[in-house]
Design a protein that fits this description.
This protein is α/β, with parallel strands linked by helices. Helix content is 43%, strand content 23%. It folds into three domains: 3-81, Winged helix-like DNA-binding domain superfamily/Winged helix DNA-binding domain (Arc Repressor Mutant, subunit A), CATH 1.10.10.10; 85-160 and 261-282, D-Maltodextrin-Binding Protein, domain 2; 162-259, D-Maltodextrin-Binding Protein, domain 2 (3-Layer(aba) Sandwich), CATH 3.40.190.10. The chain contains twelve helices and eleven strands. Strands 3, 4, 5, 6, 9, 10 and 11 form a seven-stranded mixed beta sheet that branches. α1 (3-15) packs across α3 and α1 (3-15) packs across α4.
Length: 290
Amino acid sequence: MEISDLVVFKEVASSGSITRAAENLNRVPSNVTTRIQKLEDELGKALFIREKNRLKIAPAGKQLLDYANQILALAQAAKHQLQDSEPAGLLRIGSMDAVAATRIVEPLQQFHERYPSVQLNMRSAPTGLLIEEVLQGNLDLALVADPAKDSRLGIQPMFDEELILVSSLSHPPIKSPKDLGEQPTVIGFNPKCAYRNRLTSWLQAGHCIPRVVEINSYHTMLSCVAAGMGVCMVPKALLDTYTFSNSVQRHTLSRKWSHTNTALIWRKDAFTPAMKAFAEVLTPNTQAIA
């Protein structure tokens, strides 16, 4: 089994198409097909299920994909460590929207100035999706909220955040879930968002089942709250930067519900000098990756 075969396999698994994988890898489709067939012959199992014009990964393919991610990450890490101790190459970073807007603008600028040989790739997504992307090897680092312990992940706490419950100006004071009525409307990101889950857990603890409106933009979310469409939960640091923050009302909750920590995560089996350098720029006194 060759590393190059695993690279081809991972790209086909990601794209779901021989043609698209060939384009992304700058290969001809026949070469990609041959590589996949070689792997299937070697393992004695089908890695993909052919459905019309798309390939769906088979159970054996899902097993191999996890190993392929680990092997490719280790190979990349070994290459970086043995070839050059200076940060270089591609660094793929993920972050929650709120953190990207409030915490890492300046660190990103500093990192780019210090390490021009590193190509930064940045994307934002909810915590649950970011954790999945790191585990799958699609992101090198991610800033997420309160990640659960996982033997595969390195986790370094970075920033303490205070979450604020936000409503329209006309809403009565909110001290407990019952102050929102029997079936309140909450506005939040998708179900993999840690802050949305924190808000719904608070409501459920008060035996209140909310109606959820999904909006994937904090500015749009806050505008809807200001209009009286529902309530949302956001970091105080983000609300402080919102231009129209005086158009919404803030409600503080107990520490159990309002306190959260943003942590930097990475796969323990794959780290590079660029990852270590970024962690040090993010919090200069950290020993996150060693």
